[in-house]
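--- STAGE predict ---
source: upstream dedup step, 1 unique chain passed
mode: sequence only
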Amino acid sequence: MAYAFGQFFICPDSTTARRLSENNNLDCITLDGDIYRSAGLVTGGAPPSIQKLIERTKEYKDFDIKIREAEKEAEKLKSELNVLNSDI
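--- STAGE serialize ---
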């Protein structure tokens, strides 16, 4: 839900999208392409082009997480290397 797609909040599932839409007056879209409008309208599925964009957005988020994990691991390894070098 960290990403905004146009004027929609992207939600992982329909339960989250419905809750945000009803309680916070937001227009939401799920990863499956279901749209929950703040006015109460729900439409199912997304055209293929939108579905692909949603999938790409999820892939981007997943890659971003992996990059952050790799950066943390690199910092950890640098610290270990510094300790080993100081022992020499």
